[in-house]
Write a structure and sequence with these properties.
single chain, mainly alpha, 80% helix, membrane, transmembrane helix
Length: 256
């Protein structure tokens, strides 16, 4: 295939992935990684490192659009960010030497568990308490931010994506954040760690910059529209979409 057709293909894929990623607040990596591994036969580490390039740019723009609609307390988030950066780097180093098959299977297991939890949470939402606004983040103390930042860093470092997946359920269930507020807080906490993971994967030669940049360009074109739809959709619908994306990703990973 000619280079310009390849470029058009990856830009188009990036646009679709960026749109879905913005809706559910995940930066699109959950879709990009299995796609690169399955369709383009990339080893798991290379797929994760390449997707990180798109994830980093998408998260920055997605976070900016979420912050406009639901302001984030960045001062509190900074505690979790510091823990996230350290554990992301350590976990990313471990991931470089893992078996690609083991890494992919662990990724599928993790995503399936989170998706099942989200479906369970949504189905029992009939008796839920009134959810809080973004300001409720002050109820989280220093220890909570450190723990959540550390755990999300391990997940993000191992799999190249997914740190926000552990943060969003905790914030919505335990601290009663709205879905969109939780997604915004989670994105702000994982962004620096995502950049650290990208540097680590790239340093070990596990990043295809040409493909990653094309995906990034496409993703940035559709992020604003995805965030707008996220704030328009009902809470229940948004959570079910979130779980559906995870189950789809698990299916794709297991097909490999």
């Amino acid at each position: 295939m000619d280079w310009y057709l390849n470029l058009l293909l990856f830009v188009s894929l990036g646009a679709a992935i960026g749109f879905v990623g913005a809706i559910v607040g995940i930066g699109g990596g959950l879709i990009a990684i299995p796609m690169l591994a399955l369709v383009f036969s990339m080893p798991q580490q290379l797929a994760q490192g390449t997707a990180l390039l798109m994830i980093a740019s998408n998260v920055i723009l997605t976070l900016r659009n979420y912050h406009k609609r639901s302001p984030i307390d960045f001062r509190s988030v900074a505690i979790g960010v510091a823990a996230n950066v350290v554990t992301t780097h350590l976990a990313a180093l471990v991931a470089q030497d893992m078996s690609p098959v083991l890494l992919r299977n662990l990724f599928a297991l993790f995503l399936g568990s989170v998706a099942t939890f989200y479906v369970w949470q949504t189905l029992r939402a009939g008796k839920k308490r009134p959810v809080a606004e973004a300001g409720a983040a002050r109820r989280m103390g220093f220890i909570q931010y450190v723990i959540l930042g550390s755990i999300s860093g391990v997940i993000g470092g191992l799999f190249g994506v997914g740190g926000s997946l552990i943060l969003v359920p905790v914030m919505t269930v335990v601290y009663q954040f709205r879905q969109t507020s939780a997604q915004a807080m989670a994105l702000s906490m994982i962004l620096p760690g995502t950049l650290v993971a990208l540097i680590t994967y790239s340093w070990h030669g596990n990043t295809d910059w040409t493909v990653g940049i094309a995906l990034s360009l496409g993703g940035m074109l559709m992020i604003r529209q995805g965030v707008r739809l996220a704030f328009y959709l009902p809470e229940r619908t948004l959570k079910l979409i979130f779980a559906g994306v995870l189950y789809l990703t698990v299916a794709l990973l297991l097909l490999k």
